[in-house]
Design brief:
Layout: E1 5-9, H1 16-29, E2 37-41, H2 47-53, E3 59-63, H3 80-85, E4 90-93, H4 96-101, H5 106-118, E5 122-127, H6 131-135, H7 139-150, E6 162-166, H8 180-198, H9 200-205, E7 208-211, H10 216-223, E8 230-233, H11 240-249
Parallel strand pairs: 1-2, 1-8, 2-3, 3-4, 4-5, 5-6, 6-7, 7-8
The protein binds phosphoenolpyruvate.
The site of phosphoenolpyruvate has 13 residues, from strand 8.
Length: 250
Amino acid sequence: MRKKIVAGNWKMHKNAEQTEDLLNDLIAKIPTDTAATVIVAPTFINLASAVEHLQFTNIEVAAQNVHQAESGAFTGEISADMLKSVGVDIVILGHSERRAIFNETDALIANKVGTALEHDMTVIFCFGEELKDRQSKNHFNIVENQLRDGLFQIEAKDWEKVILAYEPVWAIGTGETASPEQAQEMHEFIRETVRKNYGNDIAENVSILYGGSVKPENAKEIFSKPDVDGGLIGGAALKADDFVAIVNAI
Ligand code: PEP
């Protein structure tokens, strides 16, 4: 069943104390009967405490990355088994910052997706075009290629563990949001692409989130579009009132 989801990507923000404060605020303010599945992704070092803190709540915890190998000499990296061992079952992969700053290719992301799925983790798979791609009207091709090269190696049975997050790079952290119409047009294309490759059931059941400068002021209109099933939120996830307002917009 297609779920409504609001996920907060905290990136490299919030130390241990600030993490606890924000989680306490979210626990107090997110309605227990919210229609949304709510996910937060603090930094690696605060994941274990976040899982413990959120144990009896309706808020789930995701990691922002995972290494593709099981274990080994990979200084500074974190494995899927390590994440699972502290109760983290969800991971964000393919984020544009990881693609651009840390040179993650579609092939590497595909590898990470495989590892996460082997560990029975849910993958929030991020993808989206750059401004130059949209200006040259190449955005549909770019998105289709990212899906094909980074994700479409998975088996049909794996789709119940996949959430898609369309994030146009030109809208991330820039204050510039895709219009609700632009978001709907691309989400419809993405669902169609999934349908062509995996069939109707999978296409209808996968949740497709929009990400890119979602704020309390624009969330409701974006979420009202039929193929937008929620949002992946960056900056606005760092303030409890803004994030809660976005959750409530669902
Ligand atoms: C993101 O980084 O995934 C994101 C959507 O950021 P922002 O909401 O700040 O644009």
